Amino acid sequence: MRNIYWIAAFFGLLLASCTLFHKGSESKPAPATPNYADSLDLLLRGWLDQGNLPGFAVAVFSKDTIYYQRGFGYANLETRQAYTPNTVQMIASVSKTLIGVALMQAVEAGKLNLDDDINKYLPFRVIHPKYPDSVIRIRHLAMHVSGIRDSLYYNRSYLFGAALDKNIFSKEWWPLVEVYNRNQPIEMSVFLEKILSKQGEWYNDDNFYDHAPGAAYEYSNLGATLLAYILERATKEDYRSFTRKRILQPLGMRSSSWEKPQKCRKCSAYYLENGSRVPEYRLITYPDGGLYSSVADMTKFLQEMIKGFGGEGTLLPTRSYHMMMGKQPGGEAFPDGLCWDLSIPCCIGHAGNDFGTSTLMYFEPSTGVGRILFANKSLQADSEATFYGIFNDLFRYDLRK
Asked: What pTM did the predictor assign?
């Protein structure tokens, strides 16, 4: 979530990987053979042995069968707590996929329309200062084409549980560390108004890009959180409550929540690129990256998305799954559906990256196979190569056979 562009290098690697996954018959998947599972075990343990990631977990599955689900390394290096598929951590921008589902649920309930002006629902006006006559629409927020920028003020969203030691960061981060250490909790709505309303304390033209709404793709965490707030206004229900009752509970995602569980024995520690442990933190803009979950729980979520894409979903009508995870009218050149990444030709899903957390969650529509990788470390050159290599290896064997 700090910087979505780290996944750009991954795209080329994954494109090659898509060709590795054998497109077998479309008959009902069978359990993986021990040989394939053992072979994948060896590959992934080899990545762990490089020492670039403290811990990680992966899953490979279809809509109704888990072919492979394993954890490797440590969730906490100090206590030697194992990292497992049930380890809970913040999953960064993969959290945004829930905004997409909640959005389509609100549309199906008649609470809003995708092409509505966002100001129809807001208690403060949000106008692009460089294009004041251009309407920002709900669909624009979901596609990351609204023109809203994650300016420096976005960093005021981070609330760390203890003061950060600037010495665990490289020097270019020191000014931001000072910001993080001064941040105070405020309501999400107040945070958004301070940045996006012309009367807001942190408002300026730099909070918006130079292009008009709908004209160009620019990834925006702030825009995603504004969309979640609009859902609250349209449905008259807190976003936490809405998603808990309509997504997490129906799918049996018992380890997933927008708040860190109290006395969480399954929770991971978080490690920076240099291996330093970063204190626990949360986000004022929690819908854009603050979901606590596990590989096991998000497997349930992505299995539902695979079912929905194939006409067997339980949370939405089939048309809404296709709308959410498909190219939008007039937006064929843009890489996103409605809060879902479509930039990889073989796959639909999302990626995430934040302090001490790196996540990938994608499925192949052609095979109905999903893959998830979560790790408890931010990425730099060595750890990037390991992280991408692990995910690529999840495509190496057709575990359906």
From this structure: 0.93
For residue range 59-91, list pLDDT tens digits in order: 999 999 999 999 999 999 999 999 999 999 999
255 falls within a domain = yes
Tell me the torsion sign for CA atoms 231, 292, 241, 162. negative
Q: How far is CA 168 from the centre of its chain?
A: 25
Q: Which helix (H) or strand (E) holds 393?
A: helix 381-393
Mean pLDDT of the chain: 92
Instruction: List helix spans (H) across 33-167.
Output: 34-49, 96-108, 138-143
Task: Provide Rg for the chain, Cα atoms.
Answer: 20
Instruction: State mean pLDDT over 29-51.
Output: 80
241 vs 99: CA distance, rounded Å: 13
CA-closest candidate to residue 147, choices 207, 84, 65: 207
Longest dimension (CA), the chain: 63
Instruction: Name the DSSP class of 31.
Output: P
In angstroms, rounded to a whole number, what is the distance separating the alpha carbons of residues 3 and 333? 22
User: How far, in Å, are 165, 178, 278 from residue 272 at the CA level?
Assistant: 12, 17, 7
Distance between CA atoms of residues 374 and 293, nearest Å: 10
When divided into structural domains, the chain yields a total of 1
CATH of the domain at 334: 3.40.710.10
Rounded Cα gap, residues 23 and 346, in angstroms: 12
The answer to whether residue 401 is domain-embedded is no
* 399 in a structural domain: no
**β-pairing verdict for 81-82 and 89-90:** unpaired
Do the domain assignments include residue 35?
A: yes
Domain range for residue 41? 4-393
3-state helix, strand, coil in the chain (%, to 5): 40, 15, 45
Closest CA to 370 of 343, 341, 345, 349: 349
